[in-house]
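Dock geranylgeranyl diphosphate; give full complex structure.
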Amino acid sequence: MKLISYIQEKREIINLYLKNNLPSEKTEPVEIHQSIRYSVLNGGKRLRPILTMMTAELLGFSHEKVLPAAAGIELIHTFSLIHDDLPCMDNDDYRRGKLTNHKVYGEALATLAGDALLIMGINFICNNSKVKGISKESVLDALQYVLSKIGTEKMLGGQVDDINLQKKQANQEKIKKIYSNKTSALICASLNTASLLLNAKKDQFNALEKYGENIGMAFQITDDLLDIQQDNREENKSTYIKLFGIQESKKEALDYCERAKDNILLFGDKSALFIELADYIINRTY
Ligand code: GRG
């Protein structure tokens, strides 16, 4: 399968970039840098930076043109995971099969590691201006776009609504909005950061935005289904599965996946990997 080897190859590239560009464990104050490296370099799937690199290649450029920004998006994603796991949020003990950051380093340091990763993520995106052929204007556009996707009206807002929803009655409309904000927004940002850095055409940007929205929804519903299979369900949390049941949720995930495949048809033959990726997202086992 072409996609699997593509993912493995790109995952190694991003892992190496992160390892080499994060402050070392010996950088003072050592605790925060150890805590940061613990969470970043602990085996994430790297879906988001892979999407950024895939988009660069879809547009006819090397992945190297967007590598710093791709890594920055992964740092922002890791920040959101560390904060999401905190006792004041989801209160999780395990992440990526290992103890969560606060379980190892304590709540104060975990909170600060999350804050630091947001700052570093933004800085990595800014560093994309040092790549040959990438203008400072396009980096500013990409950065503002990413910030709009993680702020109070998108990812952060989704988290706020998610927390509040536990106390209220959930319905289809509310759950969809939360999933779109909490998960699809950063996935769109991963794709279209590359479009902005590489001056894609408006119709290409729009197609990728729709594709990202739909694979993000499929990704989050699949995440809920995997939680049920692995018995990680959180009793007080409203999810798609609780609202619609397993069979209907699987069907919804498939529908989102099919819509995403339609969205990407604009790119013709070049969209093959994106079509394979949409299927991978709903068939994944972790
Ligand atoms: C962004 C300003 C700002 C605040 C953070 C905590 C928070 C607000 C948002 C949480 C958002 C969140 C955790 C969404 C869930 C998305 C999701 C399915 C994460 C898991 O992604 P994977 O499976 O993880 O790609 P890996 O471990 O593979 O990287």
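Observed: The pocket of geranylgeranyl diphosphate is lined by residues 44-45, 47, 80-81, 83-84, 89, 96, 150, 155-156, 159, 182-183, 220, 223 (CB under 6 Å).
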